[in-house]
Fold each of these.
Amino acid sequence: MASLIIAAAGLSAVLVINSSAKQSYSSEQQFLIPNVTHTITSNSSTLKLTKENYSDLRVKGFYQLIAVAQTKQHIYKNGQRITQRRIDFTGIDTFSLLTLPRFSRPVPLAEQVGSTTQHKAEMGVASDEPNQVIKQLSFSNPTAVLHPQLLKQLKYAIDNNEDDKTGSQAPDNDQDIKDSDVNVGLADQFTTQSGKTLTKLSAFESPALGNDIIMDIAELYRLYPKADLSMLLVVGELTKTQEKVLRHLLPDYLQLSDTIAGERDSELTSSFHLNLMAMALLMFVVCLFIVVNAVNLLLNSRLIWLKVCRQLGISRQQLFIVQLVEILFLTLLASLIGVLLGVELAKLASPTVQATLENLYSVEVGFGKVSFIGLLIQVFGICLIGSVCATFIPLNKLNHQLAQSKDMPLSVTQQQFWNRATWFSFGVFSGLAYILLNHAQALWLLLIATALVILSGCCLLLANYPSMLGFIQRFIPDRFPLLQVSSKQSLALSGKTKIACCAFFIAATSNIGMNLMVDSFRGATVGWLEQRLAADYYVYNQGEPNIIELAKGSGVAVYQRLENYTSFQGKEIQQFSYPTDEFNQQAMVFYDKSESENLWHQFKQGNGVLVNQQFAFGFEYNVNDVIELPHPSSAKVSSYEILGIIYDFGNPYAQVLMPLDMFELSKSKCCIYALQGTESQIDLLRENILLAGFDPKTQLLKTKELLALSMQAFDNTFIITDGLNVVTLLVAALSLACAIIVLMNDIRPQNMLIRSMGVSALKTQLLALFQYLLLCFVALIFATPFGILLSWILIVDINYQAFSWTYPLIISPMKILQIYATSLLVVATVIAIPLFRAGRRPLIEDIRWVN
Amino acid sequence: MLALKNLKKSYTDAGEKRSILSNVNLTISPGDSISIQGASGSGKSTLLHLLAALDKPDSGEILFTGAKNSLRDTHKNCHQQHADITQFSEKQADQYRQFQVGLIFQKFNLIDCITVIENVMLPAKITGKVQDDYIQELLNALDIHRHINKLPNQLSGGEQQRVAIARGLSHQPPLLLADEPTGNLDSKNSDLVSHLLVDTCKHLNTALVMVTHSEKVALLTQQQWYLDDGRLTQI
């Protein structure tokens, strides 16, 4: 029951997280506005999208254009900041939006005024909810829309703030949030930094809303007059002619992009979802191993009763049906509890998951809307299939036990048959895995190949357990007779704990694989960052303030990095400037490079380019291949030789590096400044930044701090993986513990005999522990090469397919030993409980039970 | 070697106190062979468990006097001329069973994952008293020398019980306690095993206390005792 609950909780948590993230991505660019097909943004650091651009285009007949202004700001109360991170304030030109046909049809009054999400859901107009919300934004008494979760956070921040003064306990429940759906005057307490009161807030549950507060554009300008127009949204389809005309009308610094970019993000995250899903399924499968053992335990305890039922004439089929019905009810109950736990778990994990996704993909992640009934049906369905499959093995065993009075050991022929069958399965699984790994392109096929590799490992382990244990026995000296007996008992146990051993093997393999992968990634990232971040300080801004101007006279050497976005083979790619001096040449980290000695000379001359792995793998180019690209300034298409392929971990874009002098500031966006200088020179620059009205603390980032920040983000990213790893290991250990409880009765006579020879209870317990640890140790030995293989597949195949970049695999013996120690410790801790209980039983009880 | 004085033992069954042994007195000398008979539930096995220090009596003493050549191996309390095994701690009881007692049960007498010779040698190895000549003599006496490399499940019930006798004697204990050693065997095997058990103990000068239902088996021993209504009487 407990194992089913764990499995259901894990599965539902992952389903909720996945569903929230997917909904967020799919609606990332829309700000609650449906049917946005294109966006218009500025690609220049100096020239921005203006109100004049907007009005010009509308005057020329493009009424489907809707202006969006955005600014990131903190929220204040009584002059004190109450938000931890900046909120995205977004203003939409709702007046123009509501003149569009989709929004201008009449709407019943009841839906217009103060209608909450809940009311609307009850009225069955959920599909039209965003439209209604947008209408609310522009009414005579406008409201701002935000996600209930964000409202809850803000309310909590206020309560905390008040607690500091009054010491009262802050109420924090969903009812409060519902009450404030319309307006409870909460917003009266919120102000901008300049003291302007925010408009009334209305909670609306939509995955498109993350850290945003959406309002009418006029309201945004009232609060933040300096906010920039960030983009124009094209609502509805554009005909080809319209698109052509629009592109023609746009000034050079404005670009029209379709929302494919959003879909691209979704594709990128699909690998993350797949990863998360694979881990959850792994945990689920290992949980099912527990179910197998738990059902075994249950049936074992009922065996006498079931035999009596058989003697009374109840058929085996009837007995099985009763057991299956019981499993069905247990699964339903476990699914219900598991879903409730899983949803809570997802809520707890959501900040970490949001941070992870934001760090990985530089996007905002919202809060998902999940149907409880739908989730319950999904989880119950999966759990039922799993538990029925898991029950099949113990029921089959029960069938044999009810059919014959004595458990007959396998004959030599039967043993040989099973041994051959295991080797055959190993051959089939590994052969299929080999074919898929070498020929499959699709990510899901590669994941199947990974599963096949693990299954082939299980077969290899089962086929070799006897010889491996026999080999280990040779090293136990004669003066430890009990240890010798114990190791031989391990061999007998290995036949009875096959399923539990396989569960442990799977958990250990994935643990080694995932840890080596993360370690390799960490090592590669540290090395890459340390080499690439060669300057003393970095400034990440959108060109404002202009550091080159401010650094004049300070003596600080400034390397400006400019970027452009262009299309290559129908996909958007980045063109990035790279300095060509000796210092920056040394900082470059190559995955592969041209053997030509004058690589940098050719790069400087503009004859060749450097591309990142994402570009090379995504478009299937190698070093020395020639590609045709538009010039970053003149847009004239020319041929360039690929001089090298560079590492660029975590970048979702394919990128081409070109010399700085090919870029023009007016046509490119400035994103990074690398600074080299003495501390006194940097101090001078700091003063200049301060004089220009900017905070040098937020502008200048010391390389060491940047490295620490990057690694912190890296570690946060893998918290989820680490957590799932430990849970999987724990679940495997629990599976083993369940198997041991089942076996306790089997080994009780043997332990009784040894204890009757005068061996103490403690010694007998330690010997039993040794037996199980020996089994786990052998499983770990086999799991090591498979774990390494798994990490290699994850890095070389799956990462390649999912992200189009790879990194070298680093096999750290210390890490593997650490996993050995952790795994054995977890197993020892978990199985010590049933062993300890067995050890506390007086010997006389065992003797009476046996005889 | 062992003297039982006024031994009393009772159990509480469904809230009712039931006396199993009342004022049991018995003396066991080295080389004695004693059989204890009685109806089911009369307390035969309980008495044997008390002799093996597996259980504690309500009152009374079981005084143990160790033979000179074996006293050096036992716990310091066993060095005393008359050590009361009812007062032994768990550790002392373990030591007592390890060096002074051999135990044979009705079933589940062998460890099935190790060979016959490994089963036989195990107590000797645990106590560090491996004497190859003695073991060989034992195997020959019990006629199991041909099966030494077999696993227990490759032997018949009678052969398994003979291996159990060899195992019970391999560490040369002064006392062998057998609880229904022939209870699971057919009459032919029962005769063979019981004869071998009594003869081997006699040959090795080991005291034997055997609990049995069978009068035929009991008659092979020097003394026959009957347990009835908690009282032990010699037949």
Note: The radius of gyration of chain A is 32 Å.
Amino acid sequence: MTELTQEKARIGAPSGQDFIAGMTEEGEQLNQINPHTGPLAGAATKSHSHGGGVGVPDSSRAGRLTSYKLADFPLITGREEEWRFTPLKRLRGLDRVGVNGVDLSGAAPVITVEKPAAVTVETVGRDDARIGSAGIPEDRVSAAAWSSFTEATVVTIPVEFVATHDDVTTLTLTGAGDAPAAQHILIHAKRFSSAVVVLDHRGTAVVSENVEIVLDDGAHLTVVSIQDWNDDAVHASAQQTKVGRDAKFKHVVINLGGDLVRITPSTRYAGTGGDVEMFGLYFADAGQHLEQRLFVDHSAQNCKSRVTYKGALQGENAHTVWIGDVLIRAEAEGTDTYELNRNLVLTRGARADSVPNLEIETGLIEGAGHASATGRFDDEQLFYLQARGIPEDVARRLVVRGFLNEVIQQIKVPALEERLRESVERELAAGAL
Amino acid sequence: MSTLEIKDLHVSIDTEQGNKPILKGVTLTIKTGETHAIMGPNGSGKSTLASTIAGHPRYKVDSGSITLDGEDVLAMTVDQRARAGLFLAMQYPVEIPGVTMTNFLRTAKTAIDGEAPKLRTWTKDVKAAMHQLRIEPEFAERNVNEGFSGGEKKRHEILQLELLKPKFAILDETDSGLDVDALKVVSEGVNRAIDGGNLGTMLITHYTRILRYIKPDFVHVFVDGSIAEQGGPELADRLEDEGYDRYLVAESAQA
């Protein structure tokens, strides 16, 4: 009885059962991704975690170390919970800033802007007072970028400005080469404004990026981050959002291109009545690593969150990772949350990891749930469609299109939907399906 | 008038225990307008025949031929066979994630006809066919077979039969798992397709029950991979009374 009340309800937490081969209490040992020499898990893994002090178990998301200072973070070994799926060797040094002269002094992707007249986009120095208003870095790679960037881009949506459907603010970030770089972007939606901001990443880059997003009270903001990089790009992006009282935030992550892309969106509520929708769409080809780790921190009353991520994989060593951490703190009464991840594996040799985590510290909530399913487009499905006259390539496309369209339809930015449909078609064509 | 001709067909599958012959010389000819019931005990090869005609990759044709109006069916891919006019109503229709029935039906119709159906008449045809099969309109927006009950899946197979209008329909145990009401609805659909006048039908079934609703012209009894007996509808009546025992007894006596 007492044990039950003391124990946090952690759905998805390891049970006391025997472990599957290759699995330990700390999760899967991905030796082939990050080989290590130490003991397998347990104490070795724990020694790298950072408890949040008295009363917070170090496995809780609430206990994760946050700091602006790179030096506060120990070196990444690949055995940490937040790095265990990432092939560190392919980060091209983003994880090793400060070691053996590795730095982020490369040129950051060049930003070009399209925007409605009322929206301001400025380039500011790192001492600008607005910087740091949304969050604190939660991992070493993010902290490295924070320590390294020289100038930041600040997008401001003015008070009560209401953009029409066509008034999309688009920042196109074009990679400036493969020297490791740092980037910093801040998007500030002021009181009762309503706007859509698109971050469109293209070209070749090795970049660690911090995106801060602030919604003042009553603001409605959609931020779409498209990663349509060239095949050789490496991109880590921490996208932290602070959602004001009664604000409505929609976050969309589209991961298509790049060798390694790792997006870590975190959302926090600064007041009651916040409403957050987080959508993601990813399509991994042979050899690509696309990782999305999101965190919704319910720390205020009567806030809502909905998370829907869908991914398709095709080709040898296509790898996707989806981690959905949702924390409902004791004070967040009346929370309503649901997260969902679906993966469609189209060919052999691809791998989708999906881990939803729900921590609930109060029973006084509206609802909390999650779902994760990874399915294979298999020979029987193909046979069924072909037996109705549909050629094999059309059949595969039919399935993928239908699967991903569910997310595209939710974005509700018409100009973007068309673009994304075309991107999905291009991915399908590229996969020689 | 079309002819589906199966001659001395031998089919095997590869299992972990090695190659296993299933069909051991099947010869059968079906013409437009004819309904052939294929009956037999479990494991006699009925479903193998159906899947082989449709081109399921699991089944290996060792010898023999299948032709449709003289064209070599075995040389065609699965989708080519469907476009040539063969339709298999599956025993276990699979779920297709992400594809709505509406999208699927239109894509299949376009593939089979070689051009997209006229939107207005097509939508009307689909609605009417769904209504006749007592399929609720909301199924049009559901993913193919996803979360459908056994009976709903079978009704959707017949919906496709009615909309795609093949030359030959192979119904693989369409009656299995259906209650009497669903069996009637499904049989009505098959009869509508037959009454259209341009269909040859191969009705594969374990039970005689469905033959009360769909009248066969010919009955073939499968035992151990070949046809043990064939005749007219009266053979089905005899099977209803006697079951398959006498074939199995004969077989074990031989062995």
Note: Chain B is about 35% helix and 25% strand.
